[in-house]
Amino acid sequence: MVAASLVGAHPLCNNKGDDTSHLAEIFHTLFKHYTLNSSPTAVDFIQSLRTLAGLGFTACLANHGHIACYQPYLNCFLEHDSGDFRRHSASLLLLSQAMANMVLLAIDNFRFLCHANYHNDFINIVKNILNNLITNTSEKKEVTKRIADLLQKK
Question: Phi, psi at residue 136, to the nearest 5°?
């Protein structure tokens, strides 16, 4: 049911293709790590995810036309205990895709809004997540750099 709603996202939404899949892979790696390893920082990480989802929604709400794009991903996030992936290990990939889409849609909306005041908070959370990436392969570093570059574009 949730997967169908993600597939049926608003047709006017701009899907970034490779960036979405690479960012989803990064989230999936982090979700697997925190699911398999008991860590006191998992609670902080989930709080960061919730803040990202909220700030992204705020940006889409301010740019009224993009709520329809963001809503299916936010609904998926909320339906899974507000992003507590530890309780939904069978849905890690789905949650990873939802987070990646929310982050990239938010970036586009922040750009449209000329980087609203809360944009810096959003950027700092994404950078912290990317900097704490567990796997350090060269491919992951390249993807992390590309996402960081997207954050800085004006």
Answer: -115, 35
| pTM as predicted | 0.79
CA–centroid distance for 95 within its chain: 9
Are 108 and 115 in contact, with CB atoms under 8 Å apart?
Answer: no
For residue 22, the one-letter residue type is H
Which pair of structure tokens corresponds to residue 149?
A: 């570059």
Distance, in Å, from the CA atom of 120 to the CA atom of 96, rounded to the nearest integer, reads: 23
Report long-range pairs for 84-89 (Cβ below 8 Å, ≥24 apart): 84/46, 85/31, 85/34, 85/35, 85/46, 86/34, 86/35, 86/42, 86/46, 89/35
Q: How far apart are CA 37 and CA 153, in angstroms?
A: 35
**Tens digits of residue pLDDT in 7-21:** 444 444 655 667 888
What is the rounded distance in angstroms from the CA atom of residue 13 to the CA atom of residue 83? 22
Domain ranges of the chain: 15-152
Instruction: Read off the tokens for 42.
Output: 């998992």
Q: Which distant-in-sequence residues (6+ apart) come within 8 Å of 133 by Cβ? A: 26, 29, 30, 140, 144
